[in-house]
Amino acid sequence: MNSALGIGMTSQRTRNRMITRLQEKGIQDQQVLAAMSIVPRHLFMDEAMAHRAYEDTALPIKFGQTISQPWVVARMTEIVMQQTPKKVLEIGTGSGYQAAILGQLIEKVFSVERIDNLTKIARRRFIQLGYMNVRTKTGDGFLGWESESPFDLIIATAAPEHVPIKLLDQLKVGGMMLLPLGDNKQQSLVKIIKTETGFEKKILDSVMFVPFLPGVIRK
Ligand code: SAH
Known about the structure:
- This protein has six helices and nine strands; from the N terminus they run H-H-E-E-H-E-H-E-H-E-E-H-E-E-E.
- It has 219 residues and is α/β, with parallel strands linked by helices.
- The strands form two sheets. A seven-stranded mixed beta sheet has the order 5-4-3-6-7-8-9. It has a two-stranded antiparallel sheet with strand order 1-2.
- Strand 3, helix 4 and strand 4 form a beta-alpha-beta unit.
- The relative contact order is 0.13.
- The model is unreliable at 1-5 (pLDDT under 50).
């Protein structure tokens, strides 16, 4: 066996163990589990962290940010796939892992990140791994991605204290927005459906994400 193949098989085995754990923790959607067993999470972080890639935990990436915990990614993806969305906007590209999972399942993925260096690293990963349907740009997520709107789905992976109004404007009628809302002490995952006449809001799990911050960082 050559060593490249050996590494590939090792990560597939540990990834399969992660899938079993996700099922034990209540994730049932088969297409979400399949997507998570394909995407190589260890390639979305620094090599020094890669040996922990398939633990069910958030891990640090560059610039004080984190790659979300696999269970959170699975849970959020399971919720949004109830809508069978075709065009999605993610706020908070970070490592690009959540966007890649969405890219496995959804035709068009747009993702905005405020830290330009993270955008660039994630973009390189999408190209290397062949996610041609995932586009990312550096921008302030409070503004969304107007030229590509409206979206069937908007998902935020950073937590604002209040729902960003511009994002609601960029959602189709019938579309869903899923985001963590709260401060650094308490947050909940909130699902919002845009209807003909307004919005339906439902509070789901308690979660913990990095803050949703205004402005762009280009150094
Ligand atoms: N989805 C990511 C999670 C990264 S953590 C993953 O799978 O790895 C959340 C990210 O949101 C951070 O990179 C942070 O810089 C970014 N972020 C915070 N506020 C933002 C904003 N207003 N616009 C765009 N990105 C933002």
